[in-house]
């Protein structure tokens, strides 16, 4: 069974370039082959009020004019979905429904096949504009919904349409490229999406995620992408073979990806998310107990491991690790920031907040450095990634700063697999993360010196 699944996946990966090749030659003009970039570039902005910030990008889709749709970035998301009832992306003339017998339908892990032209709901009297008589029904993940996968039944229809993309020099790349995603009805998001977000861009380790689709569009072998989440200005997702300045690249640490699907080798149990193995935490160089059974392995329900997430605004630790971690931080703090006073009632969702925190000349809080130690790769010892004040402390208001890590029991997510630790968005802001699922590893840069993902462009670093 396991072997079968692996073969199945492999076969898809091998055939994938063919599907995209076919769609290109189908009524679309290829301008010239050297239009094929080595890497494509999407901007990320940070949105939302404290404490529920999120990271947004936009895709430009459809015809007659490309419509810009704001979407949340979900690092572990398995595909891309758009609210096609209630967004700028509407009534596109270049849209094609993916036939439920087509291989692209399998990419989106279709749940059913049927006629979506006679579906009317309480809020809709006419068929959806993206209806199809042989619709490929899909059930994408809505990470903002409190219930996993928004219940049962039909949730979306797989479609294909043109997308505009840019290279790392921020130039539009002709010709219009084809992209496969899910059109979900408004009822799917049902008010769960923050701000003016109209869907989700998944960057997961899956066949239909944004990085995978573009990798195959450009026929590069290696599935690889970089993410830099912004603290304030602009961040980036770069998909493709992006050559970094070797000097900068030497500052990266690398650790293997943990595969949840090795524990659960059945279709449907595979992890599209990115997990790593955290072997130790150090505060100011002193060890905090970490239970590796929790942070590096999965139990028979799939709970455990250390997940990297762009949907969780802050890092989350299982209680048995959080408490000693916080204690160690409080113990070391006075030697960095004498005037810091612990507040009686911390601001939710945090466990400890302070007034009178010292600030150094660069405006960063003076706090003990936190080291996350990850499992070694084949070629190195265990690797250490350091978190400084800019990523460990959250300024809540005026003089109030909070320890930017959250205890797990305070966070409730129904029906979701519960990692032992989540490395959340705030902690990875202004660092470059490299995801290389084809070599099964993740890289972390230190926090960028001028603290600007904005500068993360080719030949600039
Ligand atoms: C093809 O590319 C050339 C040069 O890059 C450009 O001038 C031209 O407008 C493009 N044609 C189309 C149809 O996109
Ligand atoms: C959608 O486009 C079709 C033609 O492509 C047009 O007949 C129809 O009126 C449009 N519907 C809306 C709601 O704009
Ligand atoms: C839609 O129409 C098809 C064919 O007429 C029918 O088999 C199917 O049950 C209908 N679906 C719904 C939801 O009404
Ligand atoms: C239907 O519309 C009402 C009001 O416009 C809204 O409150 C409700 O959530 C919608 N229901 C669905 C399933 O979208
Ligand atoms: C680590 O966690 C596992 C799973 O919860 C537990 O069985 C084990 O006793 C823990 N080990 C330590 C040293 O706390
Ligand atoms: C300020 O503190 C950060 C760590 O919080 C450190 O990386 C940086 O070098 C410090 N800057 C100065 C000027 O002391
Ligand atoms: C742990 C878990 O989720 N196991 C599921 C893996 O997938 C099979 C088939 O879909 C289910 O039967 C298991 O319950």
From TrEMBL:
InterPro entries from the entry? Aspartic_peptidase_A1, PEPTIDASE_A1, Peptidase_aspartic_dom_sf, TAXi_C, TAXi_N
Q: Which segment of the chain is annotated as a signal peptide?
A: 1-27
Tell me the keywords, alphabetical order: Signal
Listed GO MF terms = aspartic-type endopeptidase activity
Residue limits of the Peptidase A1 domain? Answer: 55-445
Please provide the Gene Ontology terms (biological process) for this protein: proteolysis
Protein family per UniProt? Belongs to the peptidase A1 family.
Q: What is this protein called?
A: OLC1v1020572C1
């Amino acid at each position: 069974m396991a072997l079968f699944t692996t073969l199945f996946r492999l076969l898809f990966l091998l055939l994938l370039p063919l599907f995209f090749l076919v769609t290109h030659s189908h009524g679309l003009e290829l301008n010239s082959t050297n239009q094929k970039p080595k890497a494509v570039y999407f901007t990320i902005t940070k949105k939302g009020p404290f404490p529920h910030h999120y990271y947004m990008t936009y895709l430009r889709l459809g015809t007659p004019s490309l419509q810009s749709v704001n979407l949340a970035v979900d690092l572990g998301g398995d595909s891309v979905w758009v609210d096609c009832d209630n967004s700028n992306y509407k009534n596109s003339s270049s849209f094609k429904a993916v036939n439920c017998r087509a291989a692209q339908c399998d990419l989106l892990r279709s749940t059913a096949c049927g006629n979506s032209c006679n579906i009317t709901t309480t809020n809709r009297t006419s068929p959806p504009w993206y209806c199809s008589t042989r619709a490929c029904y899909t059930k994408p993940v809505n990470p903002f919904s409190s219930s996993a996968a928004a219940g049962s039944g039909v949730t979306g229809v797989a479609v294909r349409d043109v997308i505009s993309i840019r290279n790392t020099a921020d130039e539009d790349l002709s010709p219009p490229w084809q992209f496969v995603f899910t059109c979900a009805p408004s009822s799917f998001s049902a008010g769960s999406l923050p701000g003016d977000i109209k869907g989700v861009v998944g960057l997961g380790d899956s066949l239909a995620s944004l990085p995978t689709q573009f990798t195959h569009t450009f026929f590069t072998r290696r599935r690889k992408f970089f993410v830099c989440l912004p603290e304030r200005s602009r961040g980036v997702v770069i998909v493709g073979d992006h050559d970094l300045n070797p000097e900068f690249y030497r500052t990266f640490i690398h650790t293997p990806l943990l595969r949840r699907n090795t524990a659960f080798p059945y279709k449907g149990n595979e992890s599209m998310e990115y997990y790593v193995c955290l072997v130790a935490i150090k505060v100011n160089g002193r060890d905090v107990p970490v239970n590796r059974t929790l942070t590096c392995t999965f139990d028979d329900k799939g709970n455990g491991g250390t997940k990297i997430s762009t949907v969780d605004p802050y890092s989350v630790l299982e209680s048995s690790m959080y408490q000693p971690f916080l204690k160690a931080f409080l113990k070391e703090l006075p030697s960095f920031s004498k005037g810091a006073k612990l507040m009686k009632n911390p601001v939710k969702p945090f466990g400890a907040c302070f007034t009178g925190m010292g600030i150094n000349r660069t405006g960063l809080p003076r706090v003990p450095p936190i080291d996350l130690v990850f499992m070694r790769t084949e070629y190195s010892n265990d690797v250490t990634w350091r978190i400084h004040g800019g990523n460990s402390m959250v300024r809540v208001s005026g003089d109030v700063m909070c320890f930017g890590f959250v205890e797990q029991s305070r966070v409730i997510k129904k029906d979701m697999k519960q990692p032992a630790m989540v490395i959340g968005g705030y902690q990875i802001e202004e660092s470059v993360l490299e995801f290389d699922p084809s070599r099964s590893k993740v890289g972390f840069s230190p926090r960028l010196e001028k603290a600007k993902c904005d500068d993360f462009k080719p030949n600039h670093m």
